[in-house]
Specification:
Largest sheet: 2 strands, parallel
Structural class: mainly alpha
Helix content: 55-70%
Number of strands: 2
Order of helices and strands: HHHHHEHHHHHHE
Strand content: under 5%
Oligomer: single chain
Shape: flat
């Protein structure tokens, strides 16, 4: 299997993107999204204020947001890795342009990814300047997952990964193309619901299972919970919505989890029934990641959102998305074995 130019750099960039996504989740979950009230510096520093004198000066300048050292370093480390990823994207574009005349060398995808990472950087800035406005925080999270997925897709293309199957398997697996696309869209929607849940601090809006506030249908305010035009201005750290609005968000995320689980299990069974070895392996991987993600989601409620579990829940959500991206890539690029 001959790999195209830029493959190993893309592997490194993907690893950095994984770190950025996990650090982003950690930063959000320890409420450090405003750990640095300015951008791109942190209290005017390229690193963070460390000495007593630096902290004193920073507190005089940023009176409303005094330095909290336990929150400054997660935010600034996240920014540094994100900036490094941007530089790697530029390098990938340069390599793609230099090798553009080579057959099947990706060019449009790296260029699009670079533009998207620039947009993602703007979302990072707006996250701070708009004081954690939930719409921007959610889009920033989705942007991180999208960047990770696009890098993974680029890896598949640069590495020439794909399925080569016999005629019978080809016909059986091809019939699942529509189902695989729907499965990917369902996962994306569920991730968006998860992002909206965390950006509005609704992860613990229901502290019991399988009921919510000991009711199957608790009082909920969907209009307020999904008001995407809420005003810009207040500091959204900790959230601004009332309990019924947060309950509506959390409840819909639970319903989405049930729908997603059912949909992906059906897809996994369908893959397994094709009898193709590669499809069965993918079905087993899909089930393993899905069931782990479900277990982590349940643990978040049972154990009141412990930090390691919550970060892992974000990480496995990204992993589930990558599995679906891989599956769709394999199905749509599948070739007959010679």
């Amino acid at each position: 299997m001959q790999r195209k130019a830029g493959f190993y750099l893309a592997v490194f960039a993907f690893c950095i993107a994984v770190i950025v996504v996990v650090l982003g989740a950690f930063t959000r979950l320890v409420h450090a999204g405003l750990g640095c009230p300015d951008w791109p510096t942190c209290y005017g520093h390229y690193w963070v204020p460390n000495t007593a004198e630096e902290i004193h000066v920073a507190n005089q300048v940023f009176i409303e947001t005094p330095v909290q050292t336990e929150k400054t370093w997660p935010e600034q480390i996240h920014r540094i890795f994100a900036s490094s990823l941007g530089l790697l994207m530029i390098a990938l574009v340069v390599i793609a342009i230099r090798n553009r005349k080579i057959e099947s060398q990706p060019l449009k995808l790296p260029i699009f990814m670079l533009g998207f990472v620039v947009l993602q950087g703007l979302f990072g800035m707006w996250t701070v300047t708009l004081l954690l406005w939930p719409q921007v925080v959610t889009l920033h999270l989705l942007g991180g997952f999208t960047t990770l997925s696009l890098l993974w897709l680029l890896l598949q293309r640069l590495g020439n990964f794909g399925w080569r199957v016999d005629q019978v398997s080809f016909e059986a697996i091809s019939k699942l193309r529509g189902l695989a696309v729907v499965g990917l869209l369902v996962v994306i929607l569920q991730i968006a619901l998860g992002g909206w849940t965390t950006s509005n601090y609704a992860a613990l809006a229901c502290a019991d299972l399988p009921t919510c506030h000991n009711e199957w249908l608790p009082p909920m305010d969907f209009a307020a919970g999904f008001d995407f035009f809420q005003k810009i201005g207040p500091n959204y750290l900790g959230g601004q919505m009332d309990n019924q609005a947060r309950t509506a968000i959390h409840f819909l995320h639970r319903v989405g989890a049930i729908v997603t689980t059912g949909m992906l299990l059906f897809l996994a069974v369908s893959l397994f029934l094709t009898r193709a070895r590669v499809a069965r392996s993918m079905a087993c991987l899909l089930c393993a990641v899905l069931l782990t993600q479900v277990a982590l989601g349940l643990s978040n409620v049972f154990f009141a959102l412990p930090l390691p579990v919550a970060v892992a829940h974000n990480a496995f959500g990204a992993m589930l998305l990558l599995v679906m991206v891989t599956l769709n890539h394999r199905i749509f690029t599948m070739q007959l074995a010679r």
